[in-house]
Amino acid sequence: DGGITQSPKYLFRKEGQNVTLSCEQNLNHDAMYWYRQDPGQGLRLIYYSQIVNDFQKGDIAEGYSVSREKKESFPLTVTSAQKNPTAFYLCASSTPGYGYTFGSGTRLTVV
Amino acid sequence: AQTVTQSQPEMSVQEAETVTLSCTYDTSENNYYLFWYKQPPSRQMILVIRQEAYKQQNATENRFSVNFQKAAKSFSLKISDSQLGDTAMYFCAFTINSGGGADGLTFGKGTHLIIQP
Fold first, then answer.
1. Are A93 and A29 contacting, i.e. CB atoms less than 8 angstroms apart?
2. d(Cα A16, Cα A66) in Å, to the nearest integer?
3. What would the pLDDT profile of B23-63 be if each residue is shown by its tens digit?
């Protein structure tokens, strides 16, 4: 079945560490997105990519980085510059006329 | 920039009742798309209903329907015959693209809906 796979489901980060969240899709969608969800804040856009080797900052990109080397993959790195990384992270993909599909999310906790 | 406002942080109704969730948005665009997403405790985002702004007819999906008032920039969700499984966070979302858009979806802060037995 086609869909989006996010891994891991739970991730723990020590202070000063970089961690990478995986997002893979087999839907052949061109566009991919990363959202951050905090209690009471809804979902906020971190980065998005419309095509391979191209991506743009969203509303809260500081402290995050991404790459888009393959159409299927859009990993998100949470760097040590992100001072408050504890949150739920959702990956999504879309294609014109079809709409948006979401992964099941990664819960990141700083320990 | 577009904004989406959900003014009800939490709502609670009895099973089988009808409930309406409010959503307003702000945009200068004429063509756009509006969505309601459900997020149950599993945190999976599930599309409930979608409305194209150029369509005057309100979208319906089984027990779910919307009241789309374009001039008022209002997009409320009505759930009829509510069920325990409807308990979830509900997010209103906006985009100027049907998909593959440059800036993805803009979300409201959500309404936590609780269906009481």
1. yes
2. 18
3. 999 999 888 889 999 999 999 999 999 998 988 899 999 99
What is the pairing mode between strands A106-110 and A10-13? parallel
Quote the Cα angle for A67-A73-A76, to 5°.
45
Say whether B97 sits in a helix, a strand or coil: coil
Beta-bridged to residue A33, according to DSSP, are A48, A92
The predicted pLDDT at position B54 comes to 87
Tell whether A42 lies on the interface with B, counting CB pairs under 8 A. yes
Which chain B residue has its CA at the smallest distance from A99's CA?
B99
What tokens were used for A86? 């504890």
List of chain B residues whose C-beta atoms are within 8 Å of the C-beta of residue A33: 104-105
